[in-house]
Amino acid sequence: MNKRNKLFLGIWIAALPFLLSGCWDNVELNKTSLITGAAFEPGSNGKIRLTIETMIADQLEGNKDTVPSVLQSAEGNTLSEILIRFNESMDRTLLISHVGVIIIDERLAKQGLLHLLDPMQRTRFIREDILILISKDVPASHLLKVLYPRGTLTSSKITSQVKSYRISYGGIPESRLFDISEALLSEGRELALGAISLKGSFKDANTLQSIKSVTPKASIVIAGTGVFSEDRLLGFLSLEDSRMLSLARNQVKGTTISIPNHDNTAIRLYHLHASLHAEMEKGELVMRMNLEGDGTVGSVDESIRLTSIGGYEQLERLGAEYLEKQMSATIKGVQRRFGVDIFGFGEQMYRKQNAQFMSISGNWNERFARTPVKVKAKIKLYRSELKTNHIRNEGIGP
């Protein structure tokens, strides 16, 4: 055997261990359970109660006579301990890398989130884009027990619902694990997380009979936004205030506003942008917010004619005034009820006027709570969809 063949044989033998080896931590798929959702609640004797939703793959293929998932609960002092203790009643290895949503009970959130977040941020199996929500007025585990006619996993339905609501209405602020870490580490901005609740009767919501009715016994609804001071929950914002908060954070892709005192008048807004400014002027804190956006006419009443530029200008003025009024009311409500900056005025000041911010950073929230914010909005309308005037102003007919 010549040297060339010997060299080739040696390389081949050396490569065999890499070609024939498998993953060091591989597990058989039919011996595992995928965790798709989780709910944290206060347990007994100061412990944490964790409820998990595990997928039943066979039932997702179209069998409507059985549920698509199984729920299990366990208690412990830490998340790591609880996950191990699930095998006291389960025969399969749990895989947490496919968790789509984590729901934290408001009772637990009021005590603080750090003891829950640390193990989630530390492990390599939980993704940073996982959705984390707060349950309002209902135990967190109840939300995972609500069944749906399509046989969809509850956690998957919640994730899709929050995403769709945010796209269509503006919804609730981004509530991913990454967003929590970012808020807790940011200077001048407090944490805010989306909230969900239960509508209807829970008593019959987790039975197969409930999904055989045209009207479900219960359903999960978006319930606003949870406001935090550091990692502790203070309270909740309404859906309208949540939309204004998302707008201030530049997280609204599109929304519709209805103009008060003008029946059936609405504007569909796109490309919304908010600019926040905070600085010291003559020893006093000054905060401003500028809102800009463009959109289309959703509907108009008889008093507004769109055959001239004046009609569009009137709608633009009414829409801008509405945004200014609503945003100002939201900011004042947060200042009065919670006294914390969840909008990010302090964060902007930290970035652009660092020396000024550092001189007042020790009591920033107190400064924010007592300082009025000047809001200015500007809207540009480009078209009126398929119609121009209201049908009564078309001039058609006898």
TrEMBL record:
One of its GO terms (biological process) is spore germination. One of its GO terms (cellular component) is membrane. It is found in: Membrane. InterPro entries: GerAC_N, Spore_GerAC-like, Spore_GerAC-like_C, Spore_GerAC_C_sf. Residues 25-197 form the Spore germination protein N-terminal domain. It is a lipid-anchor. Keywords: Germination, Lipoprotein, Membrane, Palmitate, Signal. Belongs to the GerABKC lipoprotein family. PANTHER family: SPORE GERMINATION PROTEIN B3 (PTHR35789:SF1). This is Spore germination protein KC. It comes from Paenibacillus endophyticus. The lineage of its organism: Bacteria, Bacillati, Bacillota, Bacilli, Bacillales.
